[in-house]
Design goal:
Helix content: over 70%
Structural class: mainly alpha
Strand content: under 5%
Radius of gyration: 20 Å
Shape: rod-shaped
Largest sheet: none
């Protein structure tokens, strides 16, 4: 199972790919070429980021230490 640092790096890498892919889509649109398959790939990439973020949040919750009750001691 990947650790939280690996997942964070994967999120960052995928976000950078999304930025490049969006640039390529705009280039295709300027040239008048169809972008349906490119947009479908972009949606899959965005879904992957959502899944990775959910996994990261789950791991973060597991790593948190339970909070102690702070009360008055009389």
């Amino acid at each position: 199972m990947p650790d939280i640092e690996f997942i964070r790096a994967e999120i960052l890498r995928t976000r950078l790919q999304v930025l490049r892919h969006r640039y390529w889509i705009t280039q295709l649109q300027r040239d008048g070429l169809p972008t349906t398959s490119a947009e479908a790939l972009l949606n899959r990439m965005l879904n992957k980021i959502d899944d990775l973020c959910a996994e990261r949040n789950r791991l973060r919750r597991e790593q948190q230490h339970p909070r102690r009750k702070v009360g008055r001691h009389w």
